[in-house]
Amino acid sequence: MGHIAVKDVYKKLGNRIDSLSTRVALNKTFYKILKELYTEQEADFICKMPYGFSSLKKIAGVSKFSETDVQKMLASLCSKGLVMDIMARGKFYYMLSPMVIGIFEFTMMRTDDKVDFKKMASLFHEYMLGDDQFFTKNFKAGDKAAFMRTLPHEEVIKDDPYVEVLSYEKAIDIIEQAKKISIGTCSCRHEKLHLGTKECDAPLDICTSFDKSADFLIRNNFAKEVSKSEMMEKLALSKEAGLVLNADNVQKGINYICHCCKCCCNLFGGINKYGIANIIMTSNFIAKTDADSCVGCGLCEKACPVNAISMIEDKNTGKKKDRRPKIDQSFCLGCGVCGLKCKTESIKLVPREQRVITPEDSLEKFILQCIERETLQYQLFSDPNKVTHKFARTFTGAFLRLSPVKKALVSGKLKSAFLNFVKKG
């Protein structure tokens, strides 16, 4: 594909990845990850691709490479999870994978023997949890378009005829509605296994994807297809193990469910280490304790994945050793794992006072993420070579960064009209 003239192609690649729906911290560890995963030729090719989802023909036209060369390069990049290929309207569209959910997950899910997993686990851990740069760049106060949202364990929801659990909040319904299901390696758990910090007995082969996402993973050998009955068995095991179910943060076309544990999940790590509550969107429920039946055993405190429960002395009993759980509502995910572990059934999930707003579909979530992370201009004007697109990216980016504009586009009356406008485009 010709000689690479770019002096620092990995710096350009880093900037390109930073223009996606997930921002990146452009530090030394990040560039080490890039050099491990991308050849110089691959990095150069990606920097010549359009910013958004594009057909093979468009990529060839923009990059100035032949369609044959482009097809070979894309096939190689997709097999490594560095580019995503998604079927839509009868043909494939391609887009550079973001760091999360993308490069990290797909790298640690690979089934070939071409990855030094121990080395990559160390690099990913240092990058994501070595400091707060990755999390603070992606999760600011008031942001709502998180990657994932928590599903409540339905068994723990307080029995009330007036409480409604919507279909997209139920793991069983999501599984039943899926046309194709895949199971692959949990990237976080696999990472912690190689770091030697995996404390749980939770299985590795439990990362669940649906429909188009499952098709991508199966086609590129990251996962295997399973039946609904097999998936239901996995779900039962997750409940028994007290794992948190975190799903794709959309109502329709849900792409995945993660089965997360406190010791391995990197997003839980970000919440617990840096105190950033909105890394994962909560369910529409919150934990509440029945003081009369609670015996103060502390099992709920141990089970909580985000340390939202603490045992405090109950001064009302007059006994110094009596303790009761105190729930920090600003951090409670509404997962129900505490209730699964409670032997006296004293802790239940009740509806939150205000419902959590969930994006309608993946496109809406993607647009909202790009608005919050100030990268929407790259998706609207995706040709890296056109001077008019470069000018439009600069102008639009400055406009979208204005606080009143940004706030108006993610909430209120303008939101729906703007989202519809972008979707049609």
Short descriptors:
six-stranded antiparallel β-sheet, three-stranded antiparallel β-sheet, alpha+beta, 425 residues, globular
Please tell me about this protein's structure.
The structure is a single chain. Helix content is 44%, strand content 15%. The protein is built from 20 helices and 13 strands. The chain starts with 8 loop residues before the first helix and ends with a helix. It is globular. It has 425 residues and is of the alpha+beta class. It has a six-stranded antiparallel sheet with strand order 4-8-9-6-5-7. Strands 1-3-2 form a three-stranded antiparallel sheet. A two-stranded antiparallel ribbon has the order 10-13. A hairpin with a 7-residue loop joins strand 8 (244-248) and strand 9.
Give a summary of the structure in a few sentences.
The protein contains 20 helices and 13 strands. By secondary structure, it is an alpha+beta fold. A hairpin with a 2-residue loop joins β2 (about 85-90) and β3 (about 90-95).
